[in-house]
Amino acid sequence: MGSGAVRRALAELAAHIRNALDSIPPSSKDNDPNVETTAPVHHETRPNTDAIERESDRRKPIPEMPIVVVDQMHRGNFTTISQAIKEADPGSRILVHSGIYDEGLILDKALEIVGDGNLGDVTVRAEGKDAISFKAASGRVSNLVLQQTGGGEFSGVDIGQGVLELEGCDISGSFHVGVAIHGKAFAKLRGNKIHDGKASGIYVYENGQGLIEDNDIFGNANSGIAIKEAGNPTVRGNRINKNVYKAVYVHDKGAGIIEDNDLRDNKDAWYISDDSKDLVKRSGYQE
Asked: Are 257 and 283 in contact (CB under 8 A)?
């Protein structure tokens, strides 16, 4: 073979080799065993336990208040309120069916006492004792007629400690006062009728405190409200009318906030002694 033919053959061979090499794809890092790859990172997720607990609390049913029924016709748990107070667990509600209950009540545990039906259907009548003597840390009494009869310095309701809510009751005939608040007790009196007592309708003394709001206080033989000896209530939005002496009588370092009350048709609207004048704030009254 001549030299020209040899050169042509070598050139064709070289072209075939180049074409073959061009057809091979470039190498990838993923396929190269000598190149390190980073493994995917797994992040552990922890549950939000606070949110789970809050949601769990929302779904928990609110425990029902145990109810004890008093019925003089033997259709309940007890026939007297006193026995129900003695036997009931703290935190219970005592539901009293209609009738006249001749007994004085000593409320010495955290209970709620409610008269069933309309005001006037349930009457507690106590002779020679307080209709209710409150001696617990907390409690509530509502929708009862409370009558204290007989002699002696007894009250319709005597509150000597703790916090008592007295709401929607009719309190009358007391030979001492309708409601007495003393001994650092705090009373919440709302929507009551306190009337025809032989002394003051409400008597706050010896560091007694409270909120006296939206009550009708009338026809008492002394003052509608009397405050003394560091008694310090808030008296708001009451109708204190037709009491024989003063609507509001404050003396002997009594104190309080007295606002937006109707003080008409009493002998006088006010008496505030010199040692109480700087301790009483009053506003918005009718006289």
From this structure: no
Is the whole-model pTM more than 0.90? no
Distances (CA, A) of 178 to 3, 82, 132, 187, 246: 141, 21, 11, 13, 15
Q: How far apart are CA 173 and CA 188, in angstroms?
A: 21
* Segment 191-209, tens digit of pLDDT: 999 999 999 999 999 999 9
- The boundaries of the domain holding residue 220 are 65-283
Judge whether 100 lies within some domain: yes
Q: CA-CA distances (angstroms) from residue 162 to 157, 186, 255? A: 14, 6, 20
Phi, psi (deg, nearest 5) at residue 81: -70, -35
Helix (H) or strand (E) holding 164: strand 163-167
Torsion of CA 252, 253, 259, 264, to 10 degrees: 10
Helix (H, G, I), strand (E, B) or coil at 243: coil
What is the residue type of 166? L
* Domain annotation covers residue 31: no
Q: How far apart are CA 258 and CA 237, in angstroms?
A: 9
Q: The tokens of 253 are what?
A: 């370092």
| Contact between 182 and 162 (Cβ < 8 Å) | no
Q: Is the pLDDT of residue 60 over 70?
A: no
Average pLDDT along the chain: 88
Q: How many domains does the chain have?
A: 1
CA separation for the pair 76, 57 (Å, rounded): 34
DSSP 41: P
